Amino acid sequence: MFGIADYGAFCAAIVTFLLIPGPGNLALITSTGNGAVRGGLAATLGVIAGDQVLLWLAVAGVAALLAAYPTAFTLVQWLGAGYLAWLGARMLLAKPGDAPVLKMAPHHFFRQTLMITLLNPKAIVFYMAFFPLFVDPARHPGLATFGAMALTIAVLTAAYGLTVVMLTHYLAEHMRARPGIGRALEKLAGVFLIGFGIRLALSK
C-alpha cells in the first residue's frame, strides 16, 4: 500500500509506540486534568504536530546528519531531559492555590506538548531510525509513501489521544470532590517527569 511494507505491522508498531508510558502520555493526562476535554484535545494536537515535524525532518535527511554529528543528538537529548525535569520540578514544588504548571489556555497545552514531543529523543529515534524499515524500496513511489505514513500516524494518534482524553476526563470528574487526590497525582506526575528526564539524560 503506497510503498509501505506490511501496512498492518506498521499500524501495529505505531499503536505500540503510543501505548508505551512516557512524557507524551503524561502530558495528555495532565492537560486533560487541568484543562478538561478542550485542554486534552489541544495537547493531542501538540503530539500530532510534533510527530509530523519529526517525520518530515527524517524524510529531509536529518537522520543522516545526526548520524554524522552525534554531538547534535546529544545536545537534543540534554535539552529534552532538562525540559522534562524542569516541568517535573515545577509540578512537584507547586503549592495549593498556585497556577497549574500546564496553563489553562489551550494554546499553552499545545505548545508545551509540542515541545515535549520534539525534545523526546525516543520519538526522534523512532521516526529517524525505525519507521524507514517499513518503506518498500521496490514499490516506493516517492513522497506519496511518506504522505501515507504521515496521515496514518496522525489518524492513529488522534484516535488514541481522544480515547485517553475522554477516559481521563471521566475519571477527573469523579475526583473533583476529593482535591487531595488530584494534588497527590500532580506530585506523582512531577516525579515521573523528572524520572523521564534523568532516564533520557543517561540513555545512550
The number of distinct helices, counting runs of at least 4 residues, comes to 8
Q: What pattern of helices and strands is seen along the backbone? A: HHHHHHHH
Main β-sheet, in a few words? none
Number of domains: 1
> What is the oligomeric state here?
single chain
Strand content: under 5%
Alpha-beta content class: mainly alpha
Average pLDDT value?
Answer: 76
Q: Give the % helix.
A: over 70%
Could you say which overall geometry the principal axes of the C-alpha atoms support? Answer: globular
pLDDT < 50 runs, ≥5 residues:
none
The number of E-state strands comes to 0
Radius of gyration: 18 Å
Give the end-to-end Cα distance, rounded to a whole number of Å: 35 Å
SSE topology sketch:
Layout: H1 7-19, H2 23-59, H3 62-68, H4 70-93, H5 106-118, H6 121-130, H7 143-175, H8 179-202
Helix pairs in contact: 1-7, 2-5, 2-6, 2-7, 2-8, 3-4, 4-8
Salient structural properties:
204 residues; mainly alpha; 8 helices; 79% helix
Task: Tell me what the structure shows.
The protein is mainly alpha-helical and 204 residues long. It has one domain (7-202). The protein has helices spanning 7-19, 23-59, 62-68, 70-93, 106-118, 121-130, 143-175, 179-202. Helix 2 (23-59) packs across helix 8 (179-202) and helix 4 (70-93) packs antiparallel against helix 8. The longest helix has 37 residues, at 23-59. The model has no long low-confidence stretch (mean pLDDT 76).
Can you summarize this structure?
The protein has 204 residues and is mainly α. Helices cover 79% and strands 0% of the residues.
